[in-house]
């Protein structure tokens, strides 16, 4: 096995056709086929099976994929590290973020980060937290900023940056907007607009409702925070959203935030990276910068 063969295999494994893999690698298709054939001959086992124009992984190929990706990622990290010495810190910074941090948290910091480290070239991937953590474990990204329950994850360093608790969101003229005290019984007949399954917010909302004894009526499941907010404004229902995502609308008087009865916050925006990595300069700089500036802002708020 050599690095080129493994790199070609890793790319082919996530491509639908060899033509697509060749285009991604900027190689000719016969060259891709040659490297894959040599790798299979050396290992003595079929890795990819052709079905018409498409290729699928065999069981053996599927087992090899994470190793190939890791080796390819390490090779790229080594190249980036040497490039860093040559070009004084220039390099790609592959960041993953879940939707709330990507929209309402990271932009505040990324502008200043790029001013301080102009040589870094951030590449941002936005998905649900679980998908971002998968990319991190598969060496597809270098670091993640995601909304999580603040708890350990094997193989990853998880650092809580800020709390971002869930809040009940209602229109300003809703009966719950000013009701005191607000109880679970007040929510029993209300139609809820909730996040789709798979998000941290939905997981924690379900947990809160279950533990509080709320038999809620889910009127609609939605994938985007902005869609939920607009739907609440038009009185389609009430919702549960991260505090950070609704600050602008509450300041403008378009929506009202209320604390969820009996809710204990477990939701944090966290910085996550692989424990064992030898980090390239842009990644080290990003991790140190984000931790330092968030901590400084936290101290300033306590004064």
**Fraction of residues in helix:** 40-55%
- The share of residues in extended strands comes to 15-25%
How would you name the CATH homologous superfamily of the largest domain? Periplasmic binding protein-like II
Please write the CATH class name of the largest domain: Alpha Beta
* Count of runs of 4 or more consecutive helical residues: 12
CATH arch. level architecture of the largest domain: 3-Layer(aba) Sandwich
The residue ranges in which pLDDT falls below 50 over 5 or more consecutive positions are: none
Main pleated-sheet profile: 5 strands, mixed
- The run of helices and strands is HHHEEHEHHEHEEEHEHEHEHEEH
Structural class, by secondary structure, is alpha/beta
Shape: globular
Give me the count of strands. 12
Overall mean pLDDT stands at 90
Largest beta sheet: strand ordering:
4-3-5-12-6
Reported by name, the CATH topology of the largest domain is D-Maltodextrin-Binding Protein, domain 2
Q: Any idea how many domains?
A: 3
What Rg do the Cα atoms give? 23 Å
Distance linking N and C termini: 59 Å
Topology at a glance:
Layout (H helix, E strand, L loop, with lengths): L2 H11 L4 H8 L3 H15 L4 E4 L2 E4 L1 H29 L3 E7 L1 H6 L1 H11 L3 E7 L2 H9 L5 E7 L6 E8 L2 E5 L13 H4 L3 E5 L4 H13 L4 E6 L2 H9 L4 E5 L4 H5 L4 E3 L8 E8 L6 H22 L1
Parallel strand pairs: 3-4, 3-5, 8-9, 8-10
Antiparallel strand pairs: 1-2, 5-12, 6-12, 7-10, 7-11
Helix pairs in contact: 1-2, 1-3, 1-4, 2-3
